[in-house]
């Protein structure tokens, strides 16, 4: 009981407004999570009605996160015992049902069940469906909804990877009976049953998503009329809604109808034979068309409109259904009744432009996830264009002309007409587009450049306030959308027009200007950026200062970091301007440091944070490349905020700080580690810093930088042992073993062997062989192969192939362990990743040609198999990759810095600008096969007769071509 009370206190403290209290509580909670009883304990807290609501909610969330971190994961921080796992599987459904009166708690437990099911269902939890269906009741729809919600969260992942007629029958029964007496239901009962209807439809969709189960196919005549019925259902005595009621959110009825449209679209795409031949496609098209013509402009219908038009668009695009729509009257009706009403800006969206501009921008830009009316209408127009391009172009062009005439007659009054015209033009002009490039191909019947010149350019040139801000934003957005259709010369001429818009107080306008500048500078031709530093030299400083002014106008850390588009534009300008910023870099750096200092007080926007650090890293990279003496200025400016971030443990920023510290240290000459860095190293070796996986890649890189610049100081300070402790921590976990190998390679490469000799057999190779024997994975085996070959391949006088053999043999009293381990690794040689093949090839070649131990027993018996593995590697159809040299071509070396392309990770985000190609550890070898041949020639001179005798045991399939190669090179091994 005391343990439960203490945990409740910790959970309360995690919600404290005091950052110090909150951080300490988070550390205490992390420590508690390591205890095997943590999960069951927080689950008990979530069920305890005597606890306050905040504790129960936090406990339920902690339970779900504990399940997510530990259930059936190989690298679980706290693996569950079999008994605990089975106990939870037996009780968790009934616990979830017992929380039916506490929806917030029930949702968390339901999501935990879904996580468990994702790992164990159906093979290791075959009773789950029975557990769920046994809880369904004839009349308690609170309980039923909990069961159905949980089932949906499970089955939407698995979909129809399994089948159960019992569940199918329940869906049929529940769907058939629901709302049968809707007129007599009280409002609260109706609301509950509408929720049930929605969940049943979602479950129906889940179970039909991958394939049409026989159960459903045989009962289409029962299900489809029900779906049509509910698509047209309207509650009795429904209130009359106000036009454009933006405050009313979509309810379960609207969501249920949207789900029906999705099901109809699914059947049209995947099961057209059953759906069409059964006579259901036509009625669904007719009913959906009727629904769309009746829906008002209220926001609550937006998703329904999107799903309904998506279904109609799917059918319209089908050549087999062309006859349904192939007449002028129908196409005109589609444009008039569906496209135009939903393309026109509503009062709600106009208010959004002023009152919540960030949401306006998000909805306007994120077409993939924002189910807006405009996006739905645009997508439907494009669907019509696939079958009826000429007709739709002609119809819509007439409307565009009419709207432009209305605008010309009274620009201040009829600005919405211009807005609609631009969106209509965009929808019919676009044939192909990507998020990264904008429109990539256009409708040949639409002259985009002429429209831009005649109707858009003047709005770009207009002074702020002289035209409606929405129209000006539309002009910038048009350039953003069709940027790929303009030549470099045209883009250079309009780029200066965007700079004044960065100073516009309108959030939408200056945001669109920033992102348009950024995307224009990102354009590539033949793999290289279209614009270079010469193109932007005259504008870079002005653009950056304007962007900084907007960003720094925020009065709180959250406001400063609110608009990631601005900082992304800063980043792109720095990357493009490069050494062109040499004369103003101190000013740019001053602004970046000031912004960093503010946002580190309360990090709130991961994208903004990433772009900020990427901007700093890019500035360091390019300015120091042109002016190496600037390095000290960067260190002077950056060390204070970096120290503050590390001292305050701003966990969101520490991986970025470690990467830039690595970048700065790597810019120093070899064997040059300034005192300002030496003081950083001891804290980096504390185990607690390595507990966060998000820190690990950056920390390993930083340790590599320390080793490459200060190996002697590290040895003198007695810091080798702590580094080996870190290696041990990393190598034992499957999730981090690759970083362990990375650190171990650095230790071997940069430290004198005398500092490592006593550790190499034990603990290093003892740890490696223990992992190989007890927890081997393909990744680990590949890592071990690369490390052993790396150690044999590098040019380091005190680390030789014989030394590596000795490390392995030293693990046990009797020599010969190397010969026992090698056969386990050789099958991995041909699987080596392309980037590792050269290292593996040179390492194997050195073992074969430079190791005396391998030319005598007990090791000589593996020599032929090692040569055969290497010859197989040479015969691969993919040529051996040559590692990139350290030389960095700054014109094109920075390929892509676009975090959203890479995908954000909560754990670690790499700074692209900070990365430089590592030196090739085997740069002294140009051609590995020739290296092997000449090495064998030299070994044969040292040990006459041994090499030909060993080669005689190699499979002729591989030995014969190599013998021919030796003859061609004039090499005689006899």
Write a short abstract of this structure.
This protein is 66% helix and 1% strand.
List the helices and strands and how they pair.
Elements lengths: L1 H12 L5 H15 L4 H10 L5 H18 L11 H17 L4 H18 L7 H6 L7 H18 L6 H13 L9 H22 L5 H4 L2 H12 L20 H19 L1 H6 L3 H14 L7 H15 L11 H16 L3 H9 L1 H9 L7 H37 L5 H15 E5 L3 E5 L5 H14 L7 H13 L6 H11 L8 H16 L1 E2 L2 E2 L3 H4 L3 H13 L4 H4 L3 H14 L7 H15 L6 H21 L4 H17 L6 H13 L8 H4 L2 H4 L11 H21 L3 H12 L5 H14 L2 H22 L3 H16 L7 H9 L7 H9 L8 H17 L12 H12 L24 H4 L25 H15 L3 H6 L4 H13 L6
Q: What do you see in this structure?
A:
With 974 residues, the protein is mostly helical. Among the domains are: 1-131; 159-236 and 244-321; 325-531, Leucine-rich Repeat Variant. Strands 1-2 form a two-stranded antiparallel ribbon. The protein is globular.
Q: Give the CATH class of the domain at 325-531.
A: Mainly Alpha
Tell me the strand order in the biggest sheet.
Answer: 1-2
Number of helices: 48
For this structure, the CATH topology of the domain at 325-531 is: Leucine-rich Repeat Variant
Poorly predicted regions are 177-185, 878-889
N→C terminal distance: 82 Å
Strand content of the residues, in percent? under 5%
Organism: Rhodotorula paludigena
Subcellular location: Cytoplasm; Nucleus
GO molecular function: nuclear export signal receptor activity; small GTPase binding
Keywords: Cytoplasm, Nucleus, Protein transport, Transport
